[in-house]
Amino acid sequence: MEFVEPIKKPEDIKAIKELLRQHSQRDVLFFVLGINTGITIRDLLSLKVKDVWVHGEPKQFLTIPDFHTCQEKAFYLNRSVSRELTTYLSKNNADQNDYLFKSKKNNNPITRQQAYRIVNQAAKDAGMTGKIGTHTLRKTFAYHAYRKGIAISIIARILNHHSSSETLHYIGIDKHEKNIVKVDVNL
Fold first, then answer.
1. Interatomic CA distance for residues 122 and 18, integer angstroms
2. Which of 27, 58, 133, 182 places its Cα 20 to 30 Å from the Cα of 89?
3. pLDDT reading at 1 higher than 60
4. H/E element holding 111?
5. Which pLDDT score is estimated for 54?
6. Which H helix or E strand runs over 118?
7. Taking the CA atoms of the chain, what radius of gyration do you get in angstroms?
8. For 180, phi and psi rounded to 5 degrees?
9. Long-range contacts at 128-136 (CB < 8 A, ≥ 24 apart)
10. Which whole-number Å values give the CA distances from 153 to 66, 107, 123, 129, 159, in the listed order?
11. Model pTM score
């Protein structure tokens, strides 16, 4: 597997969302869910509507079996994800057992190759020149969580990394780099 980069600039993320929105709401949801949860591509593609949607609205948490610990892992579905889920599922007549990212050709989920093409082409169309792939979604989540002040130990746990230094390397942060964190309690 080739090394890919996180999307570090918020304006690049916004541009990619807009480009994807012009093409397919499914693809926007795929991108937004990936960058807001850090879920692996394998888990993203295996999601079914019932995993994220109940009684006509988005769930607050998505739970996925963690193969490393044999326990369930919860991922918060924030406002951005909820908004895209609502837009996507209100337009589709999806069954609870349908794959969330269903192929347009059959009832299976999109393939890893198709997911790669979606993310990579949108990044190119947005003018990005770095190496971008499906793993970029997970790295983007971790990079921005770190930049927003989430403890690296928590991010490492979400990503199933063994150490904070492994996570810092993964998201392209030099551990000696000075990081200004905005701690906004806003009580």
1. 9
2. 133
3. no
4. none
5. 92
6. helix 112-125
7. 16
8. -90, 120
9. 128/7, 128/12, 130/4, 130/5, 131/2, 131/3, 131/4, 131/5, 132/4, 132/5, 132/7, 133/2, 133/4, 134/34, 134/41, 135/1, 135/4, 135/41, 136/4, 136/5, 136/6, 136/7
10. 17, 39, 29, 30, 10
11. 0.91
